[in-house]
Amino acid sequence: MVASKMVAKEAIPLLTTHRMGRFELSHRVRATKGGLLIAEATGVSATAQGYAETPGIWTQQQVDAWKPIVDAVHRKGALFFCQLWHVGRVSTNDFQPDGQAPISSTDKQIMPDAESGMVYSKPRQLQTDEIPLIVDDFRRAARNAIEAGFDGVEIHGAHGYLLEQFMKDSSNDRTDEYGGSLENRCRFAVEVIDAIVNEIGADRVGIRQIPHGLLPFRKAFNGTFIAAGGYDREEGNKVVADGYADLVAYGRIFLANPDLPKRFELDSPLNKYNSNTYYTQDPVIGYTNYPFLEGSNAE
């Protein structure tokens, strides 16, 4: 989809072009031709898992399984980044190798989730000499992602998972060089970033942070900034026009509207999404087949 001078009028901010490092985007909305798609969170090792049926990228079998998926995205004309994560203590012994305790910055256990009823296992605090091994897991996963054909990776550094467990004083009670001061608490995240950048290049690497209050980071960072978290057309246009973000990530409404950029261009009504179809092992239900606009397609 061409982002400039659509339907003989000036393009809205979301549909203007953007250069992201080595990559040229034809609009600022994820996925579709000329756009950017970021995969769901993908485990970097066997200890990174905390949820059922989530993908990984630490084995050759997983790399080979990703290849046709990446190829399909590229055939649609989109760029594709793999989001790398480690859940840390957001896990249970059942998800860990040989039923071991989940690893974290701390041995403090997460309180049970009242809404889902999930009871997390007591984690094991990583020894200082073990941390470089976890950093190397991220490095190796990034290399695997490039081998699978991904254009780059996004490191998951938010939402209470391992990197944020190290960064937050509420979940980091360490007394070594990875705890205490803000600089020390950020050391693990910086080491992960450095290892991945050295492995695949800085222009292929991003990191996910807090969903709101990004302005201080925006002012300190010269690269592409992506905002995410329930944005609609109006708010997405506003943050791009105001310079708060370069790109806006859409998830739920993109699932329900495979031609979302076209709908944004025409300011057309959106299909309503059905969250009950997001995560299910039922092959009959799966994702709902949402309709396109008449005469429209996902490109």
TrEMBL record:
Cross-referenced CDD domains: OYE_like_FMN (cd02933)
Cofactors per UniProt?
FMN
For this chain, one GO molecular function annotation is:
oxidoreductase activity
Answer whether the UniProt record assigns the keyword Phosphoprotein to this protein. no
Q: Which InterPro entries match?
A: Aldolase_TIM (IPR013785), OxRdtase_FMN_N (IPR001155), Oye-like (IPR045247)
Q: Which GO terms describe its biological process?
A: fatty acid biosynthetic process; oxylipin biosynthetic process
Domain NADH:flavin oxidoreductase/NADH oxidase N-terminal residues, every copy: 26-209, 217-268
Q: Which UniProt keywords apply?
A: Fatty acid biosynthesis, Fatty acid metabolism, Flavoprotein, FMN, Lipid biosynthesis, Lipid metabolism, NADP, Oxidoreductase, Oxylipin biosynthesis
Is the keyword Membrane assigned to this protein? no
SUPFAM superfamilies tied to this protein: FMN-linked oxidoreductases (SSF51395)
Q: Name one Pfam family in it.
A: Oxidored_FMN
Q: Which domain of life is it from?
A: Eukaryota
Q: Which family does it belong to?
A: Belongs to the NADH:flavin oxidoreductase/NADH oxidase family.
Task: State what protein this is by name.
Answer: NADH:flavin oxidoreductase/NADH oxidase N-terminal domain-containing protein
Q: Which organism is it from?
A: Triticum aestivum (Wheat)
